[in-house]
């Protein structure tokens, strides 16, 4: 089964959000917990469904995709 983080909506673009850029709180889909304001994290965007972008903790994404950038 292909999920949205496994290419269902095309390759996932992963970008780093620096701590100073993190001015909003998000919920990480990897662990279901908050990413507080001021914490660096990843924003992961399916290239064919950019409205499904989600913010992930570094550790949660790296655990999911061992070869993720960063
Ligand atoms: Zn997480």
Count the E strands: 5
Reported for the largest beta sheet, the result is:
3 strands, antiparallel
Number of domains: 1
- Give the mean pLDDT: 92
User: How large a portion of the residues is in β-strands, by DSSP E?
Assistant: 25-35%
Structure annotation, total helices: 1
What would you call the shape? globular
Ligand set: zinc ion
Percent of residues in helices comes to 10-25%
How far apart the termini lie comes to 26 Å
- Widest β-sheet, arrangement of strands: 1-4-5
Rg from alpha-carbon coordinates = 12 Å
* Low-pLDDT segments: none
Query: Which structural class fits the helix and strand makeup?
Result: mainly beta
Order of SSEs, N→C? Answer: EEEEEH
Q: Which features does this protein show?
A:
single chain; 70 residues; mainly beta; three-stranded antiparallel beta sheet; two-stranded antiparallel sheet; 1 helix; 5 strands; globular; binds zinc ion
What's the SSE blueprint?
Layout (H helix, E strand, L loop, with lengths): L11 E6 L8 E2 L6 E2 L5 E6 L7 E3 L1 H7 L6
Antiparallel strand pairs: 1-4, 2-3, 4-5
The chain binds zinc ion (ZN).
The site of zinc ion has 6 residues, from loops.
Task: Outline the structure in words.
This protein is mainly β. The chain has one domain (4-64). Helices cover 10% and strands 27% of the residues. The chain has one helix and five strands; from the N terminus they run E-E-E-E-E-H. It has one helix at 58-64; strands at residues 12-17, 26-27, 34-35, 41-46, 54-56. Strands 1-4-5 form a three-stranded antiparallel beta sheet. The protein has a two-stranded antiparallel ribbon with strand order 2-3. The radius of gyration is 12 Å and the shape is globular. It binds zinc ion. Zinc ion (ZN) binds at residues 28, 30-31, 33, 57, 60. Zinc ion binds at residues 28, 30-31, 33, 57, 60.
């Amino acid at each position: 089964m292909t999920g949205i983080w496994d290419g269902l909506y095309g390759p996932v673009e992963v970008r780093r959000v620096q701590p100073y850029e993190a001015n909003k709180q998000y919920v990480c889909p990897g662990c279901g917990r908050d990413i507080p304001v001021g914490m660096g994290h990843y924003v992961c965007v399916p290239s064919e469904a950019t409205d499904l972008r989600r913010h992930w903790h570094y550790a949660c994404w790296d655990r999911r995709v061992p070869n993720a950038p960063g």
